[in-house]
Amino acid sequence: MFKVNENYLKLPGSYLFSTISKKVNAYTAEHPEAKIIRLGIGDVTQPLAPVIIDTLHSAVDEMGNAETFHGYAPDLGYEFLRSAIAENDYKARGCDISEDEIFVSDGAKCDCGNIQEIFSLDNKIAVCDPVYPVYVDSNVMAGRTGVYDKNTGTWSNVIYMPCTADNGFAPQLPKETPDLIYLCFPNNPTGATITKAQLQEWVDYANKVGAVILYDAAYEAYISQPDIPHSIYECEGARTCAIEFHSFSKNAGFTGVRLGYTVIPKDLKAGDVSLHSLWARRHGTKYNGAPYIVQRAGAAVYTKEGREQLMKQVAYYMNNAHYIYNGLKEAGFTVSGGVNAPYIWLKAPNGMTSWEFFDYLLERVNVVGTPGSGFGPSGETYFRLTAFGSYENTVEAVDRIKNLKV
Ligand SMILES: Cc1ncc(COP(=O)(O)O)c(C=O)c1O
Question: Closest Cα to atom 16, ligand 1: which residue?
């Protein structure tokens, strides 16, 4: 008789966003006339930029000709894309990353979830609290997290690094030494960032204790302030302690197109075993590459036209972020984020829990956000709004919330 992976049974409840959509569906069934505005899930809403569409079209045409047809992609991804990434995302920022240290994939979520596979089950992970749930849940599935405590919403074998208003939503170095440290800046869900000097402390710490930092840079394109690092490799010593994840979802609207990449420097080793070679083995065995047409579209992101058009798209969302941030602040809410990130993190008013505030906003003003507790216990009295809606919906949602006079 077969047996299931029992670690899956340890996962508490259903995934955050399915709970939200169940609640919204139930509300809509009862109130079909309600105009719901969704500022919950971090999905983009603007269409792909013209240069991306043109590139996709011409790449599709190439696939229709025997001379220009492409089958399986090379294991690490096409050279034309990896060299554009190495040049623009790294060399231009003074980072020493070569194109054969870049693994192209179909997005950051899979890579963030899969990377734990190349590490021993004995490793102890440290995560920010609140946190993007994928880091913890993928380790639960692997059996690395111990026992779940329903009352605290924490796992016995995970080191939590609270990110609260008191520390500016930036984690402190943990008291207990971790093996794997997940960091994400600009942060989802808090929208917080850390400076290069703060990130350098993490790199120094990881090198000192022999830990690996798993650095998620999915929101790097939203950085507007000069002292915020776009890549962990801007820090000295990161080549020996850091893996970095990138996504084309938020900078170029590829959430439905699917493209990302992971960087593993060849200097990152456990004894003489290089993590680069383990991930290359994993990639070659379990993955057959992002589509040619999508990798072509990814390379268009780095062209002059691509940069200009995408800068406008990011500015569009950041304009929404400013509208949310300023509007809610004026209305008396305690807000943070929204400056270098498309997320606004607000304190639920009047002592409400985050799910109470979720229900309150849904029922009173038909606005959907994400309860902070879905990201971890330190999010309990917080709420996340995203700037990824249309400008019109964002303005209407914020104006509805302002009129609540909570
Ligand atoms: C922190 C973080 N990392 C990764 C992802 C997923 O990116 P992708 O669409 O490339 O899978 C998201 C998506 O919301 C995210 O918030």
Answer: 188
